[in-house]
């Protein structure tokens, strides 16, 4: 391809645009160095933000480990089909539970074949030739009574269904097409909840129109104590026979229990039974145990998250990496390692395990961590509570009147002596000292005062007395506290480093903009100077030619 035609240098023969660009390139080198610093800072910021993300993922994983995984339970059963009853557990004490279901809870119904019509649109509920409307009342098994009316505009079984659903009673209504018989469309009213409720399992529907029943469905007449705020319904059509709901009846370890629902979570602490079928001849045996697989899997996940932090720091620190020479990330990694490898703050020396290494965490040559799953599961089986104390925030009180609720990263650990000197029943007004700090509260709750050694501590109190609360941070909580401190908005070491880099880039960008403006002005000056040079040379050449013609 031919080069573009240029008319520059017609007098001097110089490529003035190339000269201008060469001069500007030389004079713009400081700006390029500034831009290179901006680009490197952007790479550093991206690498640091990646480390922040990895640290927070590590914190989330450890939070799940200490707050959820250690309380997960496995449930095995001698009935693999779960035909009569199934169970799940969380935080429950290990043990065996024999369950036999006599009957399951059911919902009351009303209607069906009793409220059947041939055509749901044209068959009228009441004779609107003699009355413009009809009044009704409905009571579900929850005992609430609601009133409603039908008019000529909705005088059919669909209108009755919609009015029942809009009434706000403890029932739902539907129209079912059975597809057979002279009256295939049936109105079915069903209680929203299982169990006998407050009406012994009966639903009542009554027509309360003054003057007696007008409807064609056979809904019996009845009355209410108030047309606007009814509480009592008398008369009407009620559930009978199999339409009456029933409570669940079942047996746990030889004790017969009754519940309104088939989902039972208050029979055994931490265990939820789901009753599916009654008339069980042989009890189903459930064994609840700590779910060591879930705990192991979650700890492995946390170690994987830690290894991601190590990899990010190492990759960034390699020759050519964005973090070469950056001491911040190395220092942070050292802090995290120190917490993971140390005895948790406040952990009693009597605890069976003191460090992560004691339960199978190993340090590899490249600085990553791995888990000896066999050793970890053996430790869990031998002393699960001692393992939990290594990783989780735990507290024990030697006085039943004082129990631990929660703590923060600011709360002192170790043995915290307390003296509850005053407690008022009813109001729960309480006062005393904890770790030498005066405390008081209401409703039986004490909060550690801000600025004190027990800031963030929350205790539940039910009486007076002295004792000791032993609080241990645990590796998991210790790492979460450290990560929160490092990544805190505005004050965290990592976030401050990123903020400083961004501020530096802001200043650099300002210098680049100012420098580029100077270069732009310099270009205009150079172009003008070369244009003047060409003009002057052109004039001189023209004068020379004129003088030459005089010879």
Instruction: Report the helical percentage.
Output: 25-40%
The largest sheet, given as strand count, sense and whether it forms a barrel, is: 5 strands, antiparallel
Number of strands: 27
CATH architecture call of the largest domain = Sandwich
Low-confidence stretches: 1-7
Gap from first CA to last CA: 46 Å
Structural class: alpha+beta
CATH topology call of the largest domain:
Immunoglobulin-like
Summarize the entry for a quick read.
This protein has helices spanning 16-27, 29-67, 157-166, 292-317, 327-341, 373-382, 384-391, 474-486, 493-548; strands at residues 73-77, 85-89, 95-103, 109-117, 133-139, 145-151, 171-177, 185-191, 204-207, 222-224, 233-235, 237-238, 248-252, 255-259, 263-268, 271-275, 284-290, 361-363, 369-371, 394-397, 402-406, 414-423, 430-434, 437-441, 445-447, 458-461, 465-472. By secondary structure, it is of the alpha+beta class.
Description:
- Strand 5 and strand 6 form a beta hairpin.
- The chain is an alpha+beta fold and 551 residues long.
- 32% of the residues are buried.
- Helix 1 packs antiparallel against helix 9 and helix 2 runs antiparallel to helix 8.
- It has 9 helices and 27 strands.
- The strands form 8 sheets. The protein has a 5-stranded antiparallel sheet with strand order 1-17-3-13-14, with no helix packed on it. The protein has a 5-stranded antiparallel sheet with strand order 20-27-22-23-24, covered by helices on one side. A 4-stranded antiparallel sheet has the order 6-5-9-12, covered by helices on one side.
- The radius of gyration is 41 Å and the shape is extended.
- The N terminus is likely disordered.
- The protein has 5 domains: 84 residues; 120 residues; 77 residues, no CATH class; 135 residues, Immunoglobulin-like, CATH 2.60.40; 78 residues.
- The longest helix is centred in the last third of the chain and has 56 residues.
